[in-house]
Design goal:
seven-stranded antiparallel sheet, 1 helix, globular
Amino acid sequence: ISGAKGINQIISFTGSEKQSDHQGGIMTWPNHSNDQDATLFQHQGTLFSQMRGRRQEKFWEVLHDGDSECAWGGEAGWQKMIGYRAEEEILYSRIYLADELEFFEENQWIFSECQGVSIACRSIRGELIAEASNDWIPGQVLRSEIPDDVILVTVAETAEVGGFDKFRQTICESGRLSWDDKQVSFTDLNGSVLVFSWKEDADPTVNGRVPSYEHIRFEDPLVKSKRGSGIICIDSSDSQCILDAFSPDTMNRRDCPK
């Protein structure tokens, strides 16, 4: 969301800055200590995010054979895990809200409005708890009470939904949101019923059907791609770059996919 201070972000993630092993950000991501798995689903202005993460420091034995771990490295760097240093620690889901997004809570929803965009987000099964962060983090981090809870975010152009107050009232309507142990059902602002499940349980549905994306192509004035081609063409007036997923180490100077 573009605002006075730049681009304002809402980010869902697991693990805190303190658990990040000095990775340089406000969150963890998968590494030698952090294992993570996630299911994400977006339909128009609504996004579901469910993450499962755990942290457990491991013992490794370096094996001096095989391929180098990285192209610029010297000797081979394969490693074999031989044990754990500590007990497993479960990582909790979190939401980060940029500092320009002034927000308040209503009916377990977090609401904000910025530059003509209305925002609502929540942790489905539990409360969101404000988490203390380092001074260098320009925003607020909220932690879910439940480690792998589903985070739901929905946005809309304020003018198109009749104003921010109308947006809030609509989101909080009884029956719009429901859930059980397996799935979450949410009726979006366009009246579509979105059902989200962890990937092991079921595919997400929109109005009772698994959405098909077979017809989708990505194309704008500078970037073109044809589904299934593995090729992305970035073409401006004075330069061209073609990325080929099948030949990632080369820049193939071929015609852009039509």
